[in-house]
Write a structure and sequence with these properties.
Number of strands: 13
CATH topology of the largest domain: Ribosomal Protein S5, domain 2
CATH class of the largest domain: Alpha Beta
Shape: globular
Enzyme class: transferase
Number of helices: 11
Subcellular location: Cytoplasm
Number of domains: 2
GO molecular function, one term: galactokinase activity
Largest sheet: 6 strands, mixed
Order of helices and strands: HEEEEEHEHHHEEEHHHHHEEHEE
Strand content: 15-25%
Strand order of the largest sheet: 5-4-6-3-1-13
InterPro entries: Galactokinase, Galactokinase_bac, Galactokinase_CS, GalKase_N, GHMP_kinase_C_dom, GHMP_kinase_C_sf, GHMP_kinase_N_dom, GHMP_knse_ATP-bd_CS
Protein name: Galactokinase
Structural class: alpha+beta
Length: 387
């Protein structure tokens, strides 16, 4: 029996009807180019958000979070004007509102105990995981018939329209549509997707947490978007190309004189990261793990030098990984300025390798990182794991 099921029985004196799971996600490569018309390459993780659930006939949700025990059982009444309270229950209000608007249906609620296993502030999409979970449960118990792509769009809309988060489609899409042991090459404009096997052979994917919260990420994100928009305008002729990632490399070099130094650097990252993302997909399809890992290194260098979003802590952690013979490649992942990096690490001697990386990083910044060796899992839905 899972932790959420046990807690559900203790709190509500009945057995839960079912357990649902919504994963976190990691972006393997293709960073800061989704808003420039580029491709992203995320994968769903086996860490995420669990919920033991039973349906209710009433239009309310009763929920207890193992992560926030002091909050007790929260009751959220559904329908009417959405009035945000400033806590985790707002995700329920927001997701319910967009689902009712989409379907024209008045939904019934549910009773649940939830637990998230994604570290807060790590940039692995704990909020999108929770949002997609709420949508998945409402969809199932109200028999709404929403497909996974629609759930992704509604989860994004809930964050954009109600929760004040200017997120893109990648996070909810990867969480709702993930496939076990596979990464997805996603066109964020068309939502066309191509899966590739994430078979790392004798290596594992390690998520490395700097334990530095992403304090500058939001302001830097908005600034980079403006710099990219300005670069595109100075490169366009008659409105073409429509996106920075559609600019051919030779065109960027020919028109470099039309750009400021900063605009050129931002554009160069977008153009080259787009190419690296396509190559990464091809490398995994071909089973070329070494080639894939080298692209991670090049991505980090571009994010450091051209896009300037890495920062002291991510650079220290990635460089500590690069120094290890057992590491094939590593890079920052997510918005930057803290959060996580990823590394492809040889299985043999793994713990010793991670210990040395941790010691090197601690010597540089003054505290230890955290490491998560996680598998690539499937998308949100009814939990299929062992009890």
């Amino acid at each position: 029996m899972t932790t959420v099921e046990k807690t559900y029985e203790e709190l509500f004196r009945e057995r839960a009807d079912a357990v649902y799971f919504s994963p976190g996600r990691v972006n393997l490569i293709g960073e800061h180019i989704d808003y420039n018309g580029g491709l992203v390459f995320p994968a769903a993780l086996t860490i995420g958000t669990y919920a033991a659930v039973s349906p209710l006939e009433e239009r309310k949700v009763e929920m207890y979070s193992i992560n926030f025990p002091d909050d007790g059982i929260q009751t959220i009444h559904l329908g009417g004007k959405v009035e945000l309270q400033g806590g985790w229950t707002d995700f329920i209000r927001a997701m319910t509102a967009v689902i009712e608007a989409e379907t024209g249906r008045r939904v019934h609620g549910f009773r649940a105990v939830v637990e998230g296993t994604i570290p807060n502030g790590a940039g692995l999409s704990s909020s999108a995981s929770f949002n997609v979970l709420i949508g998945t449960v409402l969809n199932a118990y109200n028999e709404l018939g929403l497909d996974q792509v629609t759930l992704s769009k509604l989860a994004q809309q809930a964050e954009n329209d109600y929760l004040g988060v200017n997120c893109g489609i990648m996070d909810p899409f990867a969480i709702a549509n993930g496939k076990e042991k596979q990464a997805m090459l996603l066109d964020t404009r068309t939502l066309d997707v191509s899966y590739a096997p994430l078979d790392l052979q004798d290596n594992v994917l390690v998520i490395m947490n700097t334990n530095k919260r992403r304090e500058l990420a939001d302001s830097a994100y908005n600034q980079r978007r403006e710099e990219c928009k300005s670069a595109l305008m100075n490169l366009q002729e008659n409105g073409a190309p429509a996106y920075l990632c559609e600019v051919p490399p030779e065109m960027l070099e020919e028109k470099a004189g039309h750009l400021s130094k900063v605009e050129y650097a931002r554009a160069r990252h977008a153009v080259t990261e787009q190419q690296r993302t396509k190559e990464a997909h091809a490398k995994l399809v071909d089973g070329d793990v070494d080639g894939f890992a080298k692209l991670l290194n090049a991505s980090h260098q571009s994010l450091k030098q051209d896009y300037e979003v890495t920062g002291e802590h991510l650079d220290a952690l990635v460089e500590a990984a690069w120094a290890e013979e057992g590491v094939l490649g590593a890079r920052m992942t997510g918005a930057g300025f803290g959060g996580c990096a990823i590394a492809v690490v040889k299985q043999q001697g793994l713990q010793e390798t991670l210990e040395r990386i941790g010691n090197t990083y601690q010597a540089a910044v003054g505290w230890k990182p955290a490491f998560y060796v996680t598998d690539i899992g499937g998308g949100a839905g009814k939990w299929k794991g062992e009890a």
